[in-house]
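As the next step, I needed to go through one protein, both as residues and as discrete backbone shape codes, included below for the reader:
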Amino acid sequence: MDILQKMDSFYRHRRISFPKRTSELIALMAISTTLFLFLHTRDLNTKLKEMEVKLQPDDIITSNQLISGNSAPGVKAMMKLLQSTGEMTTLEPFQLNNTRKAQHNIVFFNRVPKVGSQTLMELIRRLSIRNDFGFHQDRVQRVETIRLAPEDQEELSGLVSSYEPPGVYIKHVCFTNVSAFGYPEPIYINLVRDPVERVISWYYYIRAPWYYVERKIAFPDIPLPDPKWLKKDFESCVLSGDRECRYLTGEIREGIGDHRRQSMFFCGHHADCLPFNTDGALERAKRAVEQHYAVVGVLEELNTTMRVLEKYVPRFFQGASDVYWNEISRFNPINKNSFKPPVNEEIKEIVRKNFTKEIEFYEFCKQRLHKQYLALKLPEKP
């Protein structure tokens, strides 16, 4: 009898520990698994063809075959422009290296969502072991607030400064000027991506079944979204004038943050950063990049990004190209969303017309990265 009582108590305890909405979670996981299997089968031939293309000798990219300034179209175009204006002779690595301004050997990676930041975070984690520095990231939150009140900015600044150097701190948050609160300046880094491709990626990311499985496991009481909202495709959303896909200049989206644009993560927490696609927000974002960021990489130009990170932030990114190309890109595709369908180029062009400031900011970051790369070929001046 004593044994039976203990077993009954054990099973009662197990039942209590389960989430309240277990049936919803199980159903969602089952649907996700079925969809994954379907997509995997449907896309198998396509993936095999892609692999055949990747195996062609001219297309193989490894850590020993990084694109040089003479073969990368963006860098090459920048070189011709600087040569034509005479700026190439005045380009100095010292002036482009904000790492030298850092007062604390801590890298602050306030990562933008859907720009490859999850991959860069994994790269940093591996490099922390290889290069012997601390790795710290913000915990998963129920509600991820990217814009903070002044007192929360000060608290975050204190947290970043509290880590023992050398180290890296990673969090989804708008640019926070740590030194403005009396703390030592860290080394800021980030990534950007073509803004229209990014907004499409974000649109389908928050609709992916596995996204809700992860959220439901972490926070069991979160309600499941409306199935109609989940099924809504981006093209229909844009063409129908749905508010979610309506990008109006000056519009302000209240709440935890405006994930339509990446410039907000550089503009900061000021009220001028709230209106969509405005000159004020654009100029603040540019100024933050120029004055504070050691490197802002570009997802579409990872070769150049890795090279610049290795040279401008060497304590942390030594060997980054080798680790990325030979470990992560080959064997560990991260956060790839198989549920994102192709979007018609005509739809993208409609969106681009309303993303003029976002595109300008993206091009600004690319040009800065290209200048940093080209400056590596020049002698360093004290």
Summary: DSSP finds 17 helices and five strands in the chain. Confidence is low (pLDDT under 50) at residues 10-20, 34-71. Residues 22-42 form the longest helix (21 residues). Residues 20-58 form one domain.
